[in-house]
Design a protein that fits this description.
- The protein is α+β, with helices and mostly antiparallel strands and 249 residues long.
- It is built from 4 helices and 16 strands.
């Protein structure tokens, strides 16, 4: 039995609750959006809104740990999606009224939430688009994790990445967030970070530095950055419209 069709995806910027205000300020500026009113018992959730389109990025304050990133999958039938994920090897972390928190076989958190009709992708902002969640996986868990996500998202294209340690799950047209599975060189718990596609990496780096970010390192097609509250993310040389590198999907 295949998983229920996904209707929309959200990328979450997860940062420590005590630092969530400057994190919201930075990511609102980066994405050229405005924050919604805070929600949750501690005001921990904010949606980044873009005029005339549907949001696909949210910021969450977390109680423990340094934060990172995770995905929310919007579906018409949450229980069916949860059951599908559990059959494929996920675990339930928490059940809420109408939505659930799950954990992948390698330990990456994700959520199943109701679809509320979202369909219009936000535009490119200053030559960049936050369009990818990278799940970073130890070598011993990588093959099982790739099999899990591929089976959970059967309508998504499964593509080899630009380097052997990368694998891309590309959603059907219209969905705003891709998944990059990255095989690490050492064993450690699965974690995730955000990637932005950039028309010009150097220009994006300069803009992000002006907003308070710092450069961590440079890779073949990307620059690793640290936001003002210490969270890492990547500026990548992918096309902000297609999500692919030049001459690649």
């Amino acid at each position: 039995m295949s998983a229920p069709t996904l209707r929309w995806t959200y990328a979450f910027v997860d940062r420590p609750l005590g630092l969530v205000e400057p994190a919201r300020t930075f990511w609102t500026a980066v994405t050229d959006t405005r924050p919604s009113e805070p929600r949750g018992e501690q005001g921990e959730f904010v949606t980044l809104l873009s005029e005339g389109t549907d949001a696909c990025v949210k910021v969450q304050g977390v109680d423990a740990g340094p934060g990172g990133a995770h995905l929310d999958f919007s579906v018409a039938d949450v229980p069916a999606f949860v059951n599908s994920a559990l059959r494929l090897g996920a675990d339930t972390v928490a059940e809420h009224d109408g939505w659930a928190v799950l954990r992948s076989p390698a330990g990456q958190l994700f959520c199943a939430v109701p679809w509320h009709g979202e369909s219009v992708r936000p535009p490119v902002a200053a030559g960049t688009r936050l369009d990818q969640v990278s799940i970073d996986i130890g070598p011993g868990s990588y093959d099982a994790e790739l099999a899990f996500w591929s089976a959970l998202l059967p309508d998504w294209a499964s593509l080899s990445g630009a380097l052997p340690e990368f694998h891309v799950l590309k959603p059907p047209p219209g969905l705003p967030i891709r998944i990059l599975l990255q095989r690490l060189g050492e064993e450690r718990p699965a974690a995730a970070h955000l990637d932005l596609a950039c028309a010009d990496i150097d220009a994006a780096v300069a803009r992000h530095e002006n907003l308070g970010a710092t450069v961590v390192s440079h890779g073949k097609h990307w620059t690793v950055m640290r936001d003002p509250v210490g969270g890492t993310y990547c500026l990548t040389g992918r096309d902000p419209e297609t999500g692919g590198l030049p001459n690649r999907p």
